[in-house]
Write a structure and sequence with these properties.
By secondary structure, the chain is an alpha+beta fold. 38% of the residues lie in helices and 14% in strands. The strands form 2 sheets. An 8-stranded mixed β-sheet has the order 6-5-4-3-7-10-9-8, sandwiched between helices. A hairpin with a 3-residue loop joins β3 and β4. α1 crosses α2.
């Protein structure tokens, strides 16, 4: 009696890599393909914009999120291969700025169908290739690639509370991290850019990296803030797309530098409350 071949799970990313240019791949008889793989086989690269039915990988919170909005363009409007390229590119930019030295930091993008692309554990963001990026479910299950970042729970916490967000970045910009280690939040309206671009950036309590404590520490801030400082740890930012999340990380570090100088010169003079209200109105009109 012939020996049965062991079943092999093939993700949509792996399936695309198997496909000859302009053709569909030959699927092995012993293959088990994911729901997203079936979408891609039926719809091609447009499947990234196709809203797949809820799968068993999704968390209860994810199942009851609001319908996809126009703001969710990053994970809905681009093919997975392009999103992987953008994650790698963002990693290089963060590394060049000194925000993620060695193997620090992590980056993720939410896809349709309840899956997330996230940087792998222990990888330098300055030398990341698109194929290095891992894929996980909203319950944290590894779908493809290497072991995901140990901070994946931090990213999932943001996605579960913010249906408008499709990208999350966690980094260690030195000045902002220094302020967070000194117990200083970015909560003073020192410049119009700080008020319009960020609003208040709260400081979450210290939590042990790589544990559920980190997600718990930010849970109360996620709904109302696009950037959060982590005590003695770093910063997390989010956005409707990867570029927005990246720019918010840059803005946080710039605000931290201004705050540091102001603190050394006596604490700074905040913008008057009535002027802050006008800036907040501009912020609301811009949808920030």
């Amino acid at each position: 009696m012939p020996e049965k071949k062991k079943k092999v799970f093939i993700s949509d990313w792996e399936l695309k890599r198997m496909a000859p240019p302009g053709q569909k791949p030959v699927i092995p008889e012993n293959a088990i393909i994911s729901p997203l793989s079936r979408d891609w086989l039926e719809y091609g690269d447009q499947g990234t914009g196709h809203q797949s039915p809820v799968t068993s990988h999704q968390s209860p919170v994810a199942r009851h999120q609001s319908p996809v909005t126009s703001h969710q363009s990053e994970g809905r409007g681009h093919a997975e291969a392009e999103l992987r390229r953008r994650i790698a590119e963002t990693g290089r930019k963060l590394y060049a700025l000194g925000f993620v030295p060695a193997a620090d930091g992590n980056i993720s993008v939410r896809l349709c169908g309840g899956t997330v692309l996230i940087t792998p554990s222990g990888a330098s963001k300055g030398a990341l290739a698109p194929a290095d990026v891992s894929k996980i479910s909203m319950s944290g299950e590894l779908i493809s690639g290497r072991k995901p970042s140990s901070e994946y729970l931090l990213h999932l916490c943001v996605y579960e509370q913010r249906p408008d967000v499709t990208a999350v970045i966690h980094a260690h910009p030195p000045v902002a991290t220094g302020l967070a280690s000194a117990g200083i939040a970015l909560d003073k309206p020192l410049t119009s850019e700080m008020v319009i671009g960020l609003g208040i950036v709260p400081l979450a309590d210290y939590a042990t990296p790589g544990t559920e404590e980190v997600a718990d520490s930010i849970a109360g801030f996620v709904k109302n803030h696009n950037a959060i400082m982590l005590a003695n740890h770093g910063v997390v930012t989010c956005g409707a797309d990867l570029e927005t999340a990246f720019q918010r990380m840059e803005t946080v570090e710039q605000a931290a530098k201004i705050t540091l100088v102001a603190e050394h010169l006596g604490g700074g003079r905040p913008i008057p409350p009535e002027k802050v209200k006008k800036l907040e109105e501009i912020r609301r009109r811009l949808g920030l």
